[in-house]
Amino acid sequence: MGLQGMGGTIQYRTHTRFPGYWRLSDVVYVPDEVDENEGMRLDIDHISYEELLALGEGIGTVSTGLSQEVIIARLRRRKYSHSAIGSSAGEETCCICQEYVEEDELGKLNCEHEYHVCCIREWLEKKTWRWICKKTALAPIESNPHQQ
Question: How is residue 112 annotated by DSSP?
C-alpha cells in the first residue's frame, strides 16, 4: 500500500485506523526521482577518526575570511594614546592580547570595537563577522566614510 505525496510515495505494510488518525507499520519513503549523487554521499557516522582526518586533508580548508588587501583597505586605523581616551578608559585593553601600549596601531570594526591591527587581522582572514556581537566586521569600501 502507499500514499502519494509531493516528491515521493510513503509505502507501508499495514495500517490501523483510530478516531482522528491512522497508525502505519513498516513505513518507507520512496522518492519520485532517483538521487544521482547517492553514491557520493558519506556516512560520517560510520567513518573512523583516521578516515575523517584523511577526508579533511583531501578536501582542504575553505576560507570564509577577507584577503589582506581588503582588510588593509577597509580597516579604520588610529594610534593608541592613553591620554586621548581619558582616565576612565585607561583600563581598556585589546580583548585578544589583553594589552594596549602607547602608539600601538588599532583597527576599528563596524561595531565600533577596537583591537590591535595585528590581532584582528588574523581573525578577519578567517571570518567576516565579529565573534561577540555577530555583526559584519568591516563595511564595504564604498560605504566606509571614515577610511583613512
Answer: S
